[in-house]
Amino acid sequence: MSSASSLLLPPEPIAHLRAYDPQADAGHAVRVAQLSLDIARVFGEPVDRDDLYLVACLHDLGKADLHHLARLPRPLTPDERAAMEAHPRRGAEMVESFIGVSAPVKSWVLHHHERYDGRGYPHGMAGEDIPLGARIIAIADVYDALTSDRPYRPGWGPGEARAYVLDQAGTRFDPHLTLAFELLTA
Ligand SMILES: [Fe+2]
Ligand SMILES: [Fe+2]
Questions:
Q1: Which residues have a beta carbon within 5 Å of ligand 2, which is an ion?
Q2: Domain limits for position 31
Q3: Straight-line distance from the first to the last Cα atom of the chain, in angstroms, rounded to the nearest whole number
Q4: pTM for the predicted model, two decimal places
């Protein structure tokens, strides 16, 4: 996978992340940012790279008070799941009030768990109604989450996680963007 742009990444978004969520997984944030930029580059449609990097670093800021849930070695209860699924709204409020981001940046944080088929959250948006930046980050986020160890499972291998992403083209993910991901990871 290309990492040519990794040397150009500015440090400020990670400084924001550490300031507002000291327990955040900065490695996940940077890997999601890098992969998001790479997908956007191969996809070719203009998207502001600084905004994309900022949002990719801060997409889970709304989990700042929820790290104890992510560490549980068991499935979440319905109430815990509802709290966890509120993190895009909470994160969007946080980036707006703490960092004063633009409207697109806020919307990309808000919609990073929407699905292309409309079965995601928080709004159940579908297709290209979902902002482009959020559709890009969704792929990078899931790929990196699958390849990372969790308390309840070891990380998947890159090939297995890639196959999952490609299998979800048109359901979970934008099929045009999964094509860019496929080319990028070939
Ligand atoms: Fe998230
Ligand atoms: Fe994430």
A1: 60, 141
A2: 4-184
A3: 8
A4: 0.92
